[in-house]
Predict the 3D structure of the following.
Amino acid sequence: MSGAVTGLTKHQIARRAARDIPDGSYVNLGIGMPELIALFIPDDREIVLHIENGLLGMGPSPEPGEGDPELINAGKKQVTTRPGAAYFHQADSFAMIRGGHLDLSVLGALEVAANGDLANWSTGREGAIPAVGGAMDLVSGVKAVYVLTRHCTRQGTPKLVERCSYPLTGPGVVDRIYTDLAVIDVTANGFEVVDLPPGVGFDDVAARTAAPLRDARPA
Amino acid sequence: MIDKRVGSPREAVAGIGDGDTVMIGGFGEAGSPIELIHALIDHGAGGLTVVSNNSGSGEVGLAALIRAGQVEKIVCSFPRSANSMVFPDLYHAGRIELELVPQGTLAERIRAGGAGIPAFYTPTAAGTDLEAGKERREFDGRMCLLERGLVADWALIKARVADWQGNLVYNKTARNFSPVMAMAGRTTVVQASSVIEPGGLDPEAVITPGIFVDHVVHVPKPHHESELVARGARYP
């Protein structure tokens, strides 16, 4: 592996991804790093956030003492609504998801493979409690799927791989990946780097990716 | 005259029998009919199959029902919770069965069951470990799985307002699974914070029409699960 490299913080990754979400999009943000995107939506864009437990038009966290335990997001944290918000039941919520009505799903990952396979729900570890939530529905129906993740695990193992070793959430579903080290498109030719943060070189990323990587940055 | 009111949660769940299938509304604590669940614990029916999105938190509500040993099997999308070891401990001990279902498939299986549709195809989970044992069929170039509709002997749900005929309005994201469970329960019991005369709800604003509801119980100030958990409450 090449020498030490400092990439983006998780907030910077979320800010970078927020930049690419078009005005007028209906978007579902997964639990964890993807949720941070809500903090960085540019002021000049209206983006409607969907939460799968039954709300379009999610707003920020409530002021202390002003929340309602029955107004929560998929991570079971209290949220608020924005003007134009709507509540609905679970079958309608997943009709939006599965029926292709949402523009974008942003999820975390354990692994992403060069063919777009996503593993993010189970390590398959003996004795772990299996829990899937709405992830498999999201990847099966939403028009585009972005992943936000650290490029490597805490142990330094690459999360972008040739073939996933963990159980799949969905086959061939990921369109784009935002990490601390790069923005990478998943194409018919595998992983293609489309953007790098300052101070990170293509070789730094390639050395930390366990699959072939093409440099597709605009000249 | 149609009047579906009953006097207490205990009365409302008195007909639940050993081995029954019980759908329980809620996503996390939002919409969890905690007083009806506690009445079911007092009632004591066992060998239950519970259909619910989660497996409860702390040692109250659904987690307490599971801890009481009354649940033989849970049909669920996300049985993990940061603050409850009740389900994991029983699961590891082999004392409770889990049928793991993706959340949208769970919602649609319940909706289908309530709508008289015995089965349907969905692309969700095709090509994953959760397709094991399911019939696969390709539609328009996409692999899909055959999923069965779900019905239950009972549905226990929570609403903000009910009228005597069972027309319901919910509170915010507490609506979640309740409207589809009301359809899929052969007997549907609702606890409502407010119970009013028929005519008091705008027909345009009714979310669950009363035909799907059998018993209405007035629970004026329902507990919030997170508040009970925060103070370490246990039921009973």
Remarks:
- Chain A has a mean pLDDT of 96.
- DSSP finds four helices and 13 strands in chain A.
- The interface with chain B takes residues 51-55, 68-72, 76, 87-91, 93-94, 97-98, 122, 127, 129-137, 140-141, 167-171 of chain A (CB under 8 Å).
